[in-house]
Structures are given as C-alpha cells and as structure tokens.
Write a structure and sequence with these properties.
The protein has one helix at 58-65; strands at 2-5, 8-11, 14-25, 39-51, 68-79, 83-94, 104-111. By secondary structure, the protein is mainly beta. It has one domain (2-111). Strands 3-4-5-6-7 form a five-stranded antiparallel β-sheet, covered by helices on one side. The chain has a two-stranded antiparallel sheet with strand order 1-2. A hairpin with a 3-residue loop joins strand 5 and strand 6. The relative contact order is 0.19. It holds the Pfam family Omp85.
C-alpha cells in the first residue's frame, strides 16, 4: 500500500487488509456452453489500513485503527484456470485526508498462481 501526502510518497511496514467478494452468474441467462459462461457479476467490499515507518508505539495502533473502505460492482472475465480480468465501478467509502480517492471505473487483472 502506498499513500500520497502532497508530493512525497511513503511505504508502510505494518498493514492489515480484508475483503468480501461475491461472484455470481450474470443476471441474464446466456446460452449453455457459450462465451457468456466465462463472465460473472462481481460485488465487493474491501477494507484495510497501514502504519508509516516513522510512527511508533501507540501511533501505530491508532493508524491501524483508521481503516480505509471501498466497495464496488462490476464484471469479471475468467481466462482459463489461471487468470481473470475485471471491470469494476469502485466507490471509496472511507479514506484518510492525505489519500487521493479515485471513484469510477477501474480495470484489474488477477493471476491464480497456486
């Protein structure tokens, strides 16, 4: 995770992250065995937070308690058993003042390595 504060960036050494994702068949029924079976509806909520290296002691615990939260919905395309491509509309629900929230469409690529 990386945060932006004015022009400088900082990298966290301590973080936590959690997510709830729901993949379902598309609301309309594509034909069996067709290309439509590779697509899924995608709903999600993600939360997480980080602590900066310069923080210490109670400041780290306080920073880790200030979770950032985002939710969204979109469509996921399965690419075999190894990867997927997602097009999601994301909405930041909670952010710190120094964050640059970017609601809108986001494209994601994920690989399943295990």
């Amino acid at each position: 995770m990386v945060c932006m504060s004015q022009v400088r960036t900082c990298v966290a050494q301590v973080y936590w992250a959690s997510g709830l994702h729901l993949y379902t068949p598309l609301p309309f029924q594509p034909g069996k065995g067709g290309l439509g079976e590779l697509f899924r509806s995608h709903l999600f909520v993600n939360a997480g937070c980080l602590a900066h290296p310069e923080e210490a002691g109670a400041a780290v615990l306080e920073a880790l308690g200030e979770a950032r939260v985002a939710c969204g919905a979109g469509v996921a395309l399965r690419l075999g058993r190894a990867a997927r491509v997602e097009l999601n509309y994301c909405v930041p629900l909670r952010a710190r003042p120094s964050d640059v929230a970017a609601p809108g469409l986001q494209l994601g690529v994920a690989a399943h390595l295990l």
